[in-house]
């Protein structure tokens, strides 16, 4: 049986177009009868995230008219001198960011439910992905963005035919405006933060790494704002562990920009939930989240895996972007922040580390 379950109070709900949070205000997780994961069955599916269709919450082939070949991104050794350090080039996607993993699954569900219009809010990349897949599904789409969002990302959203609503304010102000519109119009909230179907898509990041390496890595270095990739990776490796395909969970090292690091601060103080902070300004707009709604889950995932948080300063982010470019990878600023975190991480000998390249540099300002 497929249903939503509140992570705070345990209430359960039917999957409907209008439901996106619990009556208590808590975040919703997804419960369904999960099939046993059998890697031997993966080759029968297309070379995309839907290679893992048997581990996704769809009984039929609804995804076949939605997919644009997202996923199955390269895993590449970063430097010959460090053969255990890999980058996963997750900007090799239809809209040039890893968010296509989640959007493909979320919009497949929206189409299955009969949505005629969706609303989403974003710092840029998720909005672009939702707009693209909404167009693919022939579903109307409003994307709420900050008025300072990178013009290149705004142009991408516009190219897919979405209606853009730009607002002056914090990332939280943008989300509040979108949520009010969702309630006023009674439409589907295609949120990469609130809707758990998005994480069903991002968990395929873990499946691909497992398939490419033949095992789980020791460590994942992941940038975190709202935690869409971090939580997806955690869920994916947790499912592999529960199916006896790996022996331990990889350690998750989460990276935040020092100028907006509420979850890192909570981790350092031993808190279970992050308190909102003031974003004092960071170039890494993709992780500039002052009040992350799923902070409790993020903290739990990092702690369970024996991980930690690393905060990076703005000069470190800029320098890391230059270094990545010199290595041949032109990445978005948020990805550069993650690489800056890796440069501060004390790696052990023979430790296998995976660094995601989340967005292409051409998307940044």
Automatic annotation (TrEMBL):
The keyword Lyase applies. Pfam families: PALP. Its cofactor is pyridoxal 5'-phosphate. GO terms for biological process: isoleucine biosynthetic process; L-serine catabolic process; L-threonine catabolic process. Keywords: Lyase, Pyridoxal phosphate. Residues 66-359 form the Tryptophan synthase beta chain-like PALP domain. GO terms for molecular function: L-serine ammonia-lyase activity; pyridoxal phosphate binding; threonine deaminase activity. InterPro entries: Ser/Thr_Dehydratase, Ser/Thr_deHydtase_PyrdxlP-BS, TrpB-like_PALP, TrpB-like_PALP_sf. This is Threonine deaminase.
């Amino acid at each position: 049986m497929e249903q939503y379950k509140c992570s705070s109070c345990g209430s359960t709900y039917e999957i409907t177009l209008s439901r996106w949070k619990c009556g208590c205000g808590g975040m919703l997780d997804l419960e369904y009868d999960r099939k046993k994961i059998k890697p031997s069955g993966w080759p029968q599916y297309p070379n995309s995230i839907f290679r893992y269709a048997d581990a996704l919450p769809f009984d039929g082939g609804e995804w076949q008219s939605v997919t644009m070949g997202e996923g199955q991104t390269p895993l590449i050794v970063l430097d010959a001198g460090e053969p255990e350090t890999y980058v996963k080039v997750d900007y090799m996607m239809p809209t040039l960011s890893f968010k296509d993993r989640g959007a493909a699954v979320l919009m497949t569900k929206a189409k299955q439910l009969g949505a005629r219009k969706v609303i989403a809010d974003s710092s840029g990349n998720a909005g672009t992905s939702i707009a693209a897949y909404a167009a693919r599904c022939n579903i109307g789409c409003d994307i709420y963005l900050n008025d300072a969002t990178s013009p290149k990302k705004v142009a991408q959203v516009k190219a897919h035919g979405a209606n853009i609503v730009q607002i002056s304010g914090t990332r939280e102000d943008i989300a509040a405006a979108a949520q009010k519109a969702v309630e006023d119009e009674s439409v589907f909230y295609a949120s990469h933060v609130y809707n758990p179907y998005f994480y069903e898509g991002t968990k395929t990041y873990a499946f691909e790494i497992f398939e490419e390496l033949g095992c789980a890595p020791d460590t994942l270095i992941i940038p975190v704002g709202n935690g869409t990739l971090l939580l997806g990776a955690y869920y994916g490796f947790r499912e592999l562990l529960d199916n006896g395909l790996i022996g331990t969970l990889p350690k998750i090292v989460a990276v935040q920009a020092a100028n907006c690091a509420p979850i890192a601060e909570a981790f350092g103080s031993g808190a279970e939930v992050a308190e909102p902070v003031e974003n004092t300004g960071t170039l890494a707009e993709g992780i500039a989240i002052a009040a992350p709604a799923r902070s409790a889950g993020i903290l739990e995932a990092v702690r369970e895996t024996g991980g930690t948080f690393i905060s990076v300063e703005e000069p470190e982010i800029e320098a890391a972007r230059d270094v990545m470019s010199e290595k041949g990878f032109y990445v978005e600023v948020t990805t550069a922040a993650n690489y800056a975190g890796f440069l501060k991480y004390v790696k052990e000998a023979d430790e296998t580390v995976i660094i995601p390249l989340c967005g292409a540099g051409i998307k940044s300002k």
